[in-house]
Amino acid sequence: MGFSIEAPRMIPWKEIDRAKVPGNEGEVILLARGEEFSIRTSGTELMNSRIHGSEESLAELALSRLDPKVNWQILIGGLGMGYTLAATLEQSGSDAQILVAELIPAVVKWNQKYLGHLAGIPLEDPRVRVTQEDVVKTIGKQRAVWDAILLDVDNGPAGLTREANDRLYGNSGLKASFDALRQGGILAVWSSAVDEAFTGRMKRTGFKTKMVSVRARKSGKGSKHTIWLGQRP
Ligand SMILES: C[S@@+](CC[C@H](N)C(=O)[O-])C[C@H]1O[C@@H](n2cnc3c(N)ncnc32)[C@H](O)[C@@H]1O
Q: Which of 69, 75, 166, 192 is the most buried (most CB within 10 A)?
């Protein structure tokens, strides 16, 4: 990719803030260069503001499969920079209720302080609530309540940056998501890579499963990412 006129790559990264990940899991850092933001943990980039097409597709593909109905209850795992949340709000009615579970309190604070403008200040929408906890815990709290659970908490089932997130993608994690969904509800999972074993686990859990390949950018360019859509029959 060539440099734009602003040549963002020529501007050095500047650290804005850093914070501890709960549970002694290292640090998370917020960096900026020009208009671009990056959230990183131990050398791995969790999210970059330049590329967010597939994060939006996660919400669009899942919610387009739901019956039009009033009062959607939607759970999003991982706030990141709020792009999935903004796309969810775009697709949802005025009476929808959206809960975002975010593991790292600093990520919520950064969205309120530095990142909100990137996705249109979605945290200020009255349909949105945030819980600062592991989404595994949020999923386990209730049964048959969610119309959709949208998970983008890691690089996907085969690309974990946080080993504990394996609990979401293993058999018991999938069963917990299945039980937490209403009949007809959708589990959507974002991943940087294809993982046939995960497709198999979703099917064995009982989900009507489809694996979709999407591009990183809305323009149809960029790397290929994978989104699983699993419907509770
Ligand atoms: C790749 S980012 C999400 C990007 C987001 N979809 C967006 O549109 O900007 C992953 C987010 O999930 C959070 N996270 C990681 N593991 C989590 C967990 N188990 N529960 C809740 N949040 C988690 C990270 O702190 C990070 O904010």
A: 75
Look at residue 34 and give its three-state secondary structure. coil
pTM for this predicted structure:
0.94
Comparing CA positions, the residue from 150, 151, 149, 225 lying closest to residue 191 is 225
- Nearest one of 55, 106, 111 to 226, comparing CA atoms: 55
Task: Say which amino acid occupies 199.
Answer: T
Index of the ligand 1 atom closest to the CA of residue 162: 16
Check if the beta carbon of residue 72 is closer than 8 Å to that of residue 49.
no
Instruction: Give the integer Cα–Cα distance in Å for 36 and 14.
Output: 10
Structure tokens that stand for 75 in this block = 């759970």
Domain ranges of the chain: 11-48, 53-231
Q: Domain 53-231 class?
A: alpha beta
Q: For the segment 57-103, what is each residue's pLDDT rounded down to a tens digit? A: 999 999 999 988 789 999 999 999 999 999 999 999 999 999 999 99
Query: Is residue 78 lining ligand 1, measured as CB closer than 6 Å?
Result: yes
Q: What is the 3-state secondary structure (H, E, C) of 23-39?
A: CCCCEEEEEEECCEEEE
From ligand 1's centre to the CA of 103, what distance in Å? 7
Amino acid identity, position 179: D
